[in-house]
Every structure is written in structure tokens, then in C-alpha cells.
Design goal:
single chain, 587 residues, alpha+beta, five-stranded antiparallel beta sheet, five-stranded mixed beta sheet, disordered N terminus
């Protein structure tokens, strides 16, 4: 009895366990079915966008260029235009060579590309204007060479920039720990206003450097660092110099203010020779960073030992930051740049102090041209021709290349008329004299009735003379008109007159010569034609001593005499001779 009941209880428990198993299995199956449906639907969604068999699918050919921001598009187009300009600047000029072009065509091409650049560099250029410019550039490129298309150049430039960006970022990451902390963000926050110097050869050198080490995808910090590196790695130290005449020429030719002209000269010299002092390093880096848009200045400093120094200050968001490529060059360790002087804050300690930064900044005019009112303008009229000159510098000489032929018989008085734009004093001097303590005449440049003056030269005999008209304004600026006059009687032939000069010396004597009624300048030659010296005429040495004078040497005047023939030939080919003799001291 008890055994039967036990069996029944066990059987009941067994039945209950089977029910639970079936429920669990059912739940698992439902879960698996749901997962399968989800996977299937997801697969359908992913494959719905794939092309079906024999289905034509249009490719997305939207150029990467159009996805870029306007500034990036501008920079890519500028890079392409700079490359085309560089290409055509190097092309040969020869109308008979198919690989060359004519000079006129070269000028036209360069002007066209530069006009494209000017439009593109407009800060307010819109997307529509860029698209229009792209079409015009493409049409012009195709007209020059049907094989060259703008889209191809854009693709090449974009790919090149992506590759450059990768390598530049890798290099930047390697050195980033050694660069002054915080300057990266400061440089990247700077408002940019790119400017050129206006001095074409220098601007071309600057473009070449910038194009070689930067690209449009780089940040301002990356560009500045690349330019800093370039200056340091390409320059070698050499004591610098400034040539006053070249500074004056830059001022007068391009209208630069003096400090601007000095920086242009120093930078041009540095780029050209790859050598220079802190002045050259600083001028180059300043002009490079101004070209990418930073507010940069060369400032004077004084080292602790009292010697002079120059460095570059860049103003960003109202604060000054110092960059010193020449000091950095001296501080390299094992050939590596340490960035000790890259973006120093004014509060950082430096091995020098500024002399007067405010005056340095005030004296620099960002390559703006001086107004016309700053020039001293003057002109002269002589023999019916007018010659004009203007100057921004203290002294400017204008040498008139032609010779004024004056018939002194018919025109004994030569009148030179002067005209100026302000108060001046003036005078004339003969030859190379510039003694302005002599008596002056005045012109009141403010009164229109007396802006004119006259110089009268009286000449009543044949002669060649250099005359200088000196014009000096109230600021001490001076224009010198240097002229050559040839006074002659046109009815007479060329003649010359020779004479023996100093007899004080036994072993040489001098022969002077003058010409009359020549056409233009006269060229003189001399030779010994007779002597009682037993060595003969060939032993005597003849050499020019100074203007219109010969030195006759290697002789013995104590015992012998010498006869010299002088021949003069003018610019028209007329020839005249004269003979002089030295006497021996025993006669």
C-alpha cells in the first residue's frame, strides 16, 4: 500500500517537470524567430540601396572642392593661380620657338592671372562669384592649352594638400611639445589681413617660399611655424649692411616710407643671398608673416652687453608676442630648433630689452605708398626740352644723358627755366661743385605767379662743361639736375691745344690738352715722336694722369728732350693734332 502511493507521487512530479521544459523551449523558439525577423529586415534595408541586377545607378560626381568652405576654395584657387604665374614667369620669350611665347603674350598672361587673383583675394567674395571666377579661369586655361582643365588642377591640388596635411601634422606632433605653450591657440585666433610689399621681385620670392612650405589646409599656427623653420634652416649668419643709395632708390621708385624701404632691402638681400644678420632674419620673417595676414613688425633691441639686435613682434588681440629667428638659429641643439623664441609673451624674460618699440611701429607704414604731396617736384627746361624729377630723400641726382650742343656765337646766353611745386632756393654751379653756401635765388612755390625761376649761363667761347642746377626745399631735400654742355662755333673745325705742364721733376712731365669746336666729347691719344734719348721713343712710358692730361715718364730730362704728339677725335670722327716738346735741363 505504501509503496504504491510513493510511486504515484513520483510520477506526478515527473509530469510537472515536462510542462516546464516545454514552456522554456517555446519561449526560446519565439525569441529566435524574433531575432531572425529583425536580422532579415535589417539586411533588406541595407541591401535596398545597392544596385539590383541590370539597374543603372548614377554616381555622385559632386567635386570635393564644392564641399569645402569658401576660404578653402579661395586658397586652392590661389595656389593654382600662383603655380600658373610661376610657370609663365619662367617661360622663354621667342616668337620663332614653338615652346616659347612673345613678350607681349607673356605680359598679357601674367596680367590676366594677377587680375583673377585680385578678384579672389577680395574679403567679400561670394560662392557665386567664386563659381563665376572658376569658369573664367577654366576658359582661359583651356584657351592657353586645351589639355589643361581647372577641375583636373583642383583635384591634383586637393590630393596634394591632403598628403601634405598628413605629413605636416605628423611633423608638428613630433615637435609640439617643444613649442611655447599656448601660442598655437593665440596664433589661430588672430584676425588675418594679408598684404604684399608692392616690390615685385620680393613678392615673388615670398610667394615661392610660402607655396613651398604651406598649404591652404594648414592652420595659422602651422603656417607661422613652417615659415619660422624655413628662415632658420635656410639662413646663415653674416654681418649685415644697408646701402643708402638702394634705400633712396626704393623710396623714390616705389614711394616707400624710409623704414619700409629698409625692410624691403634687408629681406630682398636675405632671400637672394641666404645670408645676413638679425636684421635680415627679422625682415624676412616679418614680410612672410605679413603676407599670410599677421600684424608683424621689426623692432630694435639691445643685448645685455650693449650690442644692438632686431627681432619680430606680432600683435594679436591687443597683445605683443615675440619671434626671434636669428636667436633661435644660434640656440639650435644638435641641429634641431628648440623654439625658445617662438611666440614669447612680453612678460617672458629675454636676453635683451626693446629700444623703443612704439617708435619702430609708428615708423613702419605697412608698405603703403607716400602721398604725392610728400615729394619735392621740380623740372627744368633747356634747349626746348623739359626734364622732371621728384624725390622723397635728402638728395637726388638726375643726370641728363644727352649733351646740349650750343652755338655760342649765335647763342651766347643759355637760359634754363625752373619750375617747382613749393618754396625752394636754387643756384647753378660749374663742374662737380656742390657748395651750396654760394648765393641762392628763391622761388615761392605757393604763389602761382612766381613758381618759376631762370638760370642764365653766359658763354662766349668754345668749351665743354658740366653744369649742375641745385634746387633745395625748406626740409633740406635737394634735387640736382646734372647737364653736359658743348659750346662750339659750328662754322669752325675741331682744334686742340696741348701744353707741357710741371717741370719740377727730372724723370717725368705732364701734358695738358684742350679742345675747341668739337662735336660731342673728344678722345685723346699721345705718343713720343722724337727724342735724343739713346734708348729711343719706345722706352718712354705714356699714361693718362687725369682728365685731359697725360703723364710722360721713364725719361731723363737732365740730359734729353722729348717731342710729344697729341691727337684728338670727337664723336663725329673729326681729328685734330698738336705737338709739344720738353726741353732738357742742360739747354
Amino acid at each position: 500500500m505504501s509503496r504504491k502511493k510513493e510511486t504515484e507521487v513520483v510520477g506526478e512530479k515527473h509530469v510537472i517537470n515536462k510542462k516546464y521544459v516545454l514552456i522554456i523551449i517555446g519561449a526560446v523558439l519565439i525569441f529566435l524567430i524574433v531575432i531572425g525577423v529583425v536580422i532579415f529586415l535589417n539586411r533588406e534595408d541595407k541591401t535596398s540601396n545597392l544596385p539590383k541586377e541590370n539597374e543603372i545607378v548614377e554616381e555622385d560626381n559632386t567635386p570635393v572642392f564644392e564641399e569645402k568652405a569658401i576660404d578653402e576654395q579661395k586658397n586652392i584657387l590661389l595656389d593654382i593661380l600662383n603655380q600658373e604665374i610661376a610657370k609663365y614667369e619662367e617661360i622663354c620669350i621667342d616668337s620663332d620657338n614653338s615652346e616659347c611665347i612673345t613678350e607681349e603674350k607673356k605680359i598679357e598672361i601674367l596680367n590676366t592671372f594677377n587680375s583673377f587673383k585680385d578678384r579672389l583675394e577680395n574679403e567679400d567674395v561670394s560662392q557665386e562669384e567664386i563659381e563665376l571666377l572658376k569658369q573664367e579661369v577654366n576658359d582661359y586655361l583651356v584657351a592657353l592649352d586645351p589639355e589643361v582643365k581647372l577641375d583636373d588642377l583642383i583635384s591634383e591640388e586637393t590630393e596634394k594638400e591632403e598628403n601634405n596635411t598628413t605629413s605636416e601634422k605628423e611633423e608638428s606632433n613630433e615637435n609640439s611639445s617643444s613649442v611655447a605653450s599656448g601660442i598655437e591657440g593665440i596664433l589661430n585666433s588672430a584676425k588675418l589681413n594679408p598684404i604684399k610689399t608692392g616690390y615685385t621681385s620680393l613678392d615673388n620670392q615670398v610667394s615661392s617660399v610660402i607655396n613651398s612650405v604651406t598649404n591652404s589646409s594648414m592652420s595659422t599656427y602651422e603656417k607661422v611655424k613652417a615659415l619660422y623653420d624655413w628662415v632658420i634652416n635656410n639662413m646663415s649668419y653674416q654681418i649685415g649692411f644697408v646701402i643708402g643709395e638702394e634705400i633712396d632708390s626704393l623710396m623714390n621708385t616705389y614711394g616707400f616710407y624710409e623704414r619700409d624701404a629698409i625692410q624691403v632691402f634687408l629681406a630682398s638681400n636675405g632671400f637672394g643671398t641666404k645670408r645676413g644678420s638679425c636684421d635680415n632674419y627679422s625682415a624676412m620673417f616679418m614680410i612672410l608673416t605679413r603676407r599670410i595676414g599677421l600684424d608683424s613688425y621689426v623692432v630694435s633691441a639691445r643685448n645685455t652687453n650693449g650690442t644692438g639686435h632686431t627681432t619680430v613682434n606680432i600683435k594679436i588681440n591687443g597683445k605683443w608676442y615675440n619671434f626671434d629667428p636669428q636667436r633661435e638659429d644660434n640656440s639650435k641643439k644638435n641641429g634641431k630648433i628648440m623654439y625658445y623664441a617662438f611666440g614669447e609673451d612680453d612678460s617672458d624674460s629675454k636676453p635683451y630689452t626693446y629700444v623703443n618699440r612704439n617708435s619702430d611701429v609708428a615708423a613702419f607704414h605697412k608698405f603703403n605708398k607716400q602721398p604725392e604731396s610728400n615729394y619735392l617736384n621740380a623740372s627744368i627746361t633747356v634747349a626746348g626740352k623739359t626734364y622732371s624729377a621728384k624725390t622723397l630723400v635728402q638728395k637726388y641726382n638726375l643726370t641728363i644723358p644727352e649733351t646740349f650742343e650750343i652755338n655760342y656765337v649765335n647763342n651766347p646766353n643759355t637760359v634754363i627755366k625752373l619750375e617747382v611745386d613749393r618754396n625752394v632756393t636754387y643756384m647753378w654751379t660749374n663742374g662737380g661743385y656742390t657748395n651750396l653756401d654760394w648765393e641762392h635765388s628763391s622761388i615761392d612755390g605757393k604763389a602761382t605767379t612766381s613758381r618759376y625761376g631762370e638760370v642764365t649761363i653766359n658763354q662766349t667761347y668754345s668749351a665743354n662743361y658740366n653744369y649742375t642746377i641745385h634746387i633745395v626745399d625748406e626740409n633740406g631735400r635737394e634735387i640736382n639736375f646734372i647737364m653736359h654742355f658743348n659750346f662750339r662755333d659750328s662754322s669752325k673745325k675741331l682744334s686742340i691745344s696741348a701744353n707741357v705742364g710741371d717741370y719740377s721733376y727730372n724723370d717725368y712731365f705732364l701734358v695738358g690738352v684742350s679742345s675747341y669746336d668739337s662735336i660731342g666729347n673728344v678722345n685723346y691719344t699721345a705718343k713720343v715722336i722724337e727724342t735724343n734719348d739713346p734708348r729711343g721713343v719706345g722706352a718712354v712710358v705714356i699714361e693718362p694722369s687725369y682728365s685731359y692730361t697725360f703723364k710722360i715718364s721713364n725719361l731723363d730730362r737732365s740730359n734729353y728732350w722729348y717731342k710729344i704728339e697729341i691727337t684728338g677725335t670727337d664723336e663725329a670722327g673729326n681729328v685734330a693734332t698738336d705737338v709739344v716738346s720738353s726741353i732738357s735741363l742742360i739747354d
